[in-house]
Amino acid sequence: MELEKIKGIGQAKIKILNRLNIFNQEDLLTYYPFRYDVIKKTDIRNLLDEDKVIIDGVIETNPNIFYFSRKKDKTSFKLNTGDKLLNIVIFNRGFLKSKLLIGTTITVIGKYDKKNNNVVASEIRFESLNDTPSVEPVYHITNGITGKQINSIIKNINIDIPDYVPEYVNDKYKLLSKKEAIKEIHFPTTIEKLKQARTKLKYEELFMFMLKINYLKNKNHKEGLKKIIDYNKVQELINNLPFELTKDQLKSVEEIYNDMIDIKQMNRLLQGDVGSGKTIVSFISLYMNYLAGYQGSLMAPTEILSIQHYNNIKKILPDLKIELLTGKTKTKEKNEILKKLKNNEIDILIGTHSLISENVIYNNLGLVITDEQHRFGVNQRANLKNKGTNPDILYMSATPIPRTYALTIYGDMEVSNIKTMPNGRKEVKTLLKKDSEIKSVLELMYKELKNNHQVYVIAPLIESNEESEMENVYELEEKMNKAFGKLYKVGILHGKMSNKEKDEVMNDFKDNKIQILVSTTVIEVGIDVKNATVITIFDSYRFGLSALHQLRGRVGRSSLESYCILISSKETERLNVLTKTTDGFKISEEDFKLRGSGDLFGIRQSGDMNFKLADLKNDYNMLLKAKEDSDYFIKNDLNKIEYKHIKNELAKSINLD
Ligand code: ADP
Ligand code: MG
To answer: Where is 392: in which H helix or E strand?
Structure first.
């Protein structure tokens, strides 16, 4: 239902609501408050500094207004609370002067300022407090609209939205009806009722989430291709590698081989911390798939990483026909690749998520690998799978997922673990430095540069503003040039450069034609230059621990002593975790504790887990129930006519078939 149909709402307000991603009445009803204020009289006898105060009373003195400027002013008066006279101060409300008359009953909401013995009000209401506490919703707002206005617009909505929890499940847990829950979430009658409403709506989110995961999972449980692979040839490739595979790498290769020769479709996750050597395992897998006579594809989350994979795999498998396809491949070249792919003139296709766009048609796809799979959403993964007749699937991830969570998300997936690092690796030394200690940082960088080693410098991440992110790269480039430009070459890398430019810079860095690479987080995943021994990360407090761990993984990729320097004057306690451990598993758990679920899986951006109310950590038990219930529902009820609305809702986010 359109917003226009709501009583008393005009085009101007609609525009503002659109800014909050509200485009119809359903959006409004599910625009849940993010917090509630309990409006309850404060006991003002023992106030401590900064205590929140909610108190009503009668104005005792005429307000005294001091004007700092035309728009800045300070009003003060005394409030008689019945027990006590309180000094009230409020800023920039000079316009209330005519209403703040002696004898008027008001409610003041604010904070106690002990030093000046007054209450600094943030809000004044011209009414007294209720005897019973009331619960008031607080919404995320934007310029031009208040939470109160949102709340009263919602009051004028007369539609019902469907309940996506099957009735028998509602009964089982005694959940509120959707209608009642929506009403309570916006207009809570009691705290108890509000809790019930939140439980219901959280459960609904988790149910729909698990329904989607389970649906995709069931769909994946299929017969696949029984491959015939000449293992002697695989052994030959392994023998000719420039290094000896670690025990875990060999074991992973074996597990993958066994999956491939089985009729069951492979559905395997290859887990291993940064630098543990997953890539070579994926190349060997692609080779096995090739030996069986199938095309294979490897999807990486960034252009730079796919270019790197492309260059490396060509070295390992020089006789195979391998192509690169990314979002930046020129149309003519792209059409050529697509034609060859369809005609089976390409053995292996490497690329970014453009590999899953609709017009990419394979001749006989037998293996799909996604590197750093946590960066792709469930849908993207599913799409790639749909490209072939049940090709084998291998996911690779450096983000360790605690077993319990992995179970929920990946369910029946098999897991191969690379636990040991290649021989001779030293632990990266991690140093935390304040902004003011930049000199010692430059000295350390210089020491390494003098030893003919190379350095990464990471420009701080600036949220949702690529332009200023670039500015930061340029600023840092200038600083590095000032410090080292006479002796060393400084290069830059950022997301807005073309494929060709990126490739050139990366190659120059690999060939040591550039010694200092100033970059945004485009190098965060996967990039591999063994001679780089220092990574200096500016404003590191802006990053999650797992992201920093990934960045740190850019160095220490050989037997050289390496350093990760985190520069930050803020949040040093949080960042300190990194100086104490290089165990990616511990780090991701720590990140999880500090920042919540989205970061654990690193798929914040994918939208799969954008819960409005639920939280995987706090609501884990509920999630397990939702998993069970949705499983049962798929098996027994999904296609029943009375649950058509649930199926339709599911179809909105994934392809049903
Ligand atoms: P990740 O698991 O983070 O993707 P990579 O596959 O990029 O790690 O491997 C990191 C580096 O280690 C690469 O330079 C790779 O060539 C090298 N490497 C991989 N396996 C071995 C090994 N068994 N012995 C020595 N070096 C190895
Ligand atoms: Mg990798």
So the answer is: strand 392-397
